Amino acid sequence: MRNKKKVVIKIILIGAAIAVGALFLAQFIDSFGNGVFKDWFYSRFIERIPTEEGISYPVFYNWGGFKSFIITVIVVSLVVVSTIIILVMNYSNNRKSQEMKNTIESMRLQGQRHEQLLQMESQRKSDLITYLAHDMRTPLASIIGYLSLLDEVPEMPEEQKAKYVGITLDKAYRLEQLIEEFFDVTRFNLQTIVLNRQKLDLRLLLQQMADEFYPLVEPAGKSITVDTPDTLIYDGDGDKLARVFNNIIKNAVTYSYENTVIRITARQEDKLIIEVASHGDSIPKHQQEQIFEKFFRLDSSRSSQTGGAGLGLAIAKEIVDAHGGEISVRSDEKETVFTVKL
């Protein structure tokens, strides 16, 4: 209520000021012109009274008319000022209303996008569980089949027996991998990343990671090089960062061409930058951000030989985010480079 009174008082004062200003302005303009306003004003409100000395002086003879004139000017000024204020307020309100509509629309679109992402993620997860369940049956059937042969034919030649045992072992390893992927899928949304930070030598960590992949790259004529500074100390969770680089290097090993070199480099700038570069089929531009989403796979048909749960890079991103860093990828016909900034 007090605010409304203040607004009314301000409008009245502004109107009065404009009215007085208008009179002075008219008088000022009149002084440079032919005196039209002055003549009208004098003829309407002022009468000159002559004296015995022959000098006349002005006297208000129509004080009531003058007051009516002043009131009229003030009222007109108030109407003009009020109209201007109303127009300005309406413009401001319309602008705020439009901004609010835009904000609501933006929030609505973000909500729709979030809901779509959740639906896509849920669909991917559902499809992936179906794929895993189907893929588990293949190695399991092979394991049962070969073990049945070994059991039914105890006099089987040693060479053939060793061959069947080797095949059975390979299928068991594959089944173990699929079971691990299945557990990754089912427990991913339940885990919370808690960091156990400590001083660690990233140079040593990266070299160890490269050495672990030697049995996988050597048969395909691939190799891994590590180029880092002699001293590369970082305060982070070594176990979880090992999982980050394991996932990235594994991705490079899986999808790089035969007889190529996978390069791991690290350097210290404003941040600690680690890059893993490989030569293979390029990742389409529109999918270079999607590959960090949960359950996303470039090969949607999911090859059971190279396919994973689509969680490796998503987990890597969550671990890097927990360290306050960022992970990205760039890919073209020449090479694919994963970059981690810590």
TrEMBL record:
The chain crosses the membrane at residues 7-29, 69-91. Keywords: Kinase, Membrane, Phosphoprotein, Transferase, Transmembrane, Transmembrane helix, Two-component regulatory system. Residues 131-342 form the Histidine kinase domain. It comes from the Bacteria. It catalyses: ATP + protein L-histidine = ADP + protein N-phospho-L-histidine. It is found in: Membrane. GO terms for molecular function: kinase activity. Its main location: membrane. Its EC number is 2.7.13.3. Gene3D superfamilies: 1.10.287.130, Histidine kinase-like ATPase, C-terminal domain. Signal peptide: none annotated. The keyword Glycosyltransferase does not apply. This is histidine kinase.
